[in-house]
Fold:
Amino acid sequence: MGTCLNRGNRDKLTLSEYICIHKTEAMRVAGFTIIRNAIQYDYPVLESIRSVLPICDVFYIGLGASEDETAKYLTQLNSSKIRIINSIWDDTLREGGRVLAEETNKVFRQIPGEYDWVFYIQADEVIHERDHSVIVDAMHEYLGNTQVEGLLFRYKHFYGSYHFIAESPKWYRHEIRVIRNTKTIFSYRDAQGFRKEPNQKLRVKSIDAAVYHYGWVKDPIKMQKKYSDFQKLWHDDQWIEQNIVDKQQFEYDRHIESLIPYEDSHPKVMLPRIEKQTWSFDFDPAFTHYTMKNRFRNWVERWTGYRLWEYKNYKKI
Structure:
């Protein structure tokens, strides 16, 4: 991490100085992700990794054998913190996205035990720089409390463009992205979250930090290719043939239940990509198209604050 300043008034420190002081006091942090065909599917993987590098002492990339020049693309990171782990994905694992969890576990198992916390980020997820100090504070606060096995983040799911957020019960609101470097923990199902052996939910603390999820913001042509190809990670050929229509462009409107305008800032690492958006996406926020089930869930949540049947792969403590 280099030489840090002595502890002083936090208000007088830059963010990098603040993080440096806290991280070297008592803990070490490793980050990791998995990626394959980043160019073909237009993943913001460089932005994703750069958004968490200031928090991490080292960052591991599980690089799947790709059909494009993903390996060369990753060299743009130009950081001594980067460690590449090459892998060949098992494309026969086509049930429930299992291959994603298998590849996630491959990388996690290779992270040395000298690291206290592990920051897992998917290749279409980005962390806002204003949340860095919140995350580091939480890591530091709970470092000695082994009851806390992970940190829970809020989610912003961007959809169609960088100016709208999906708002519907079908989108998960929280997920674990920081875990203890304990090898009894494993990636669960399709790698959305984690559990621990034998099959228990992690005990977590919710923190006031968000994951900016850009997986549904792409040129419609690249979005359609990703959407069609990724169904093969969950379903067999018969299901694909019966359910996936061969189209050139993704029809965003067909998958919308409700969107709200986004008027806040994006992470700085995303700004060049956002400025280069080449496709148009127009949407009337007054439009909603909920299923009857989700309309009822919305009604209950509006009056009680409770979301029915919400998927929670964790235990808040």
